[in-house]
Structure formats: structure tokens, C-alpha cells
Design a protein that fits this description.
two-stranded antiparallel sheet; 25% helix
Length: 69
């Protein structure tokens, strides 16, 4: 498990995106191992230490269709 200390104004979804490459389903998993984290609301104060569980990387989607191709 990794530890991460927040900086003023950070959001959990942004931290998850930076660490895991996605915020899809990772935010919920981080909240599950950090009791009381939701009390801070969407904007986290500086100095909160988060436990970041080891999660698998998100699956890459292949053969995407682009509307602009």
C-alpha cells in the first residue's frame, strides 16, 4: 500500500487519475480503505495522508471509433 499526502485544493478523483490512470471505480476503492475521508468533501485540505491500495491498471480499449477520423 502506498501513502500519499495531499496538497491544498486537491481532489480525490484527480489524485486517483494521476496515480492509477483512471478515476473510474478507483475513487470508491480508495474511500473504502480511508475511513472518514469523505468528511472533507470534494476538495481536500493539505496534509491529509491517504492510503492508496495496489490496484490493477485500467484495461486499454482497442479499436475505438473516432467521430473526427
Amino acid at each position: 500500500m502506498m501513502h500519499y499526502t495531499t496538497k491544498a485544493g486537491e481532489r480525490l478523483d484527480t489524485i486517483c487519475f494521476e496515480v492509477y490512470g483512471s478515476s473510474h471505480k478507483t475513487v470508491e476503492q480508495v474511500l473504502a480503505v480511508n475511513a472518514g475521508l469523505a468528511q472533507y468533501g470534494p476538495i481536500l485540505p493539505a496534509g491529509v495522508t491517504l492510503e492508496l491500495p495496489e490496484l490493477s491498471k485500467p484495461h486499454q480499449v482497442e479499436n475505438l471509433i473516432s467521430l473526427w477520423s
